[in-house]
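ugh ok fine here u go
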Amino acid sequence: MEADAFMEITLTPSFMKIAFLINGTAKGLDKLKKSIDTAFKEHDPKLFISEKAGHVTQLAQTAVSRGYDTIIVCGGDGTLNEGINGIIESFKSGLGDSPDAYDWEKIAQIKVGVLPSGSGNDFSKTIHVTKEIEYLKNLIAQKRSHLIDIGWVSFFKSDKEPSHRFFINITDVGMGGETVLKLQNNKIKALGPDFNYFWAITSTLATYEKVKIRASGENFLWEGKAINFVVANGKYFGNGLGVAPDASVTDGKFDIVIIGDVSLMDYFKNLGTVKKCEKVIHPEVHYYQMERVTIESMETRKISIDMDGEFIGYAPMTLVNIHQKINFIF
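structure:
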């Protein structure tokens, strides 16, 4: 459980309408559907199955429009990201693309949960939610939910196409964006997530040319070459790498982790420390905390963005921590 204070929600509707948003590519899909129907039979759960990339966002909006007040996302971090964005966008109450354009009070009335069933389930590690459906059922029965932070990002889908999006776990630039692109284009399902992540990370690291980055925030300016510039709400990314040991989902701040001019040898030397979710002691690894940060390239080449394990676009980008707005089950 988080060491710092959080706000616990105790809203208890007379009848809970529960929807499950399921990644249609999930392993053992039929078994998962049967398990949900059996475990939550008394709630008459509605199962929404995605058919393509981005579909979970639409399904989340459909669930909200039909009055479901408890929405469980079944999948990995990317699927959870889609679901969260669909829920939030259902309550856009103003014009413009700022975090103030949403009705956060109404958003907090919906309980959101996760049943980890993807290739990368890093956010669930931070909040200690297991893959066991009975564990989730007990959390819901005990009305266990807390308001947690959410990240808002403005970025570019292309050179001239500005966009914005919310993230729940981690957004990073540099090698992370190149790694997820490699995973998306070359993943070998038969080899499993552990091998695929290890191969993608190490092969990218071996060939990645570090980019010079400028990052700025309140009383903060950093310039230099970096392998990765990580903005973390959760502690883990890359299938279990504890890159941000001090990150909290309730403190209103991002943990910033800058992995600078680090060699392949240094990466492997410190990999065990990262897997144990401990801070790396190295002159090229830096840790900060802040509520807002802007990141841009100091070179002509683009910097790709990894958000919750998916490629979304390019920097420059600005990230803002929105404090305790999502009513999450854990």
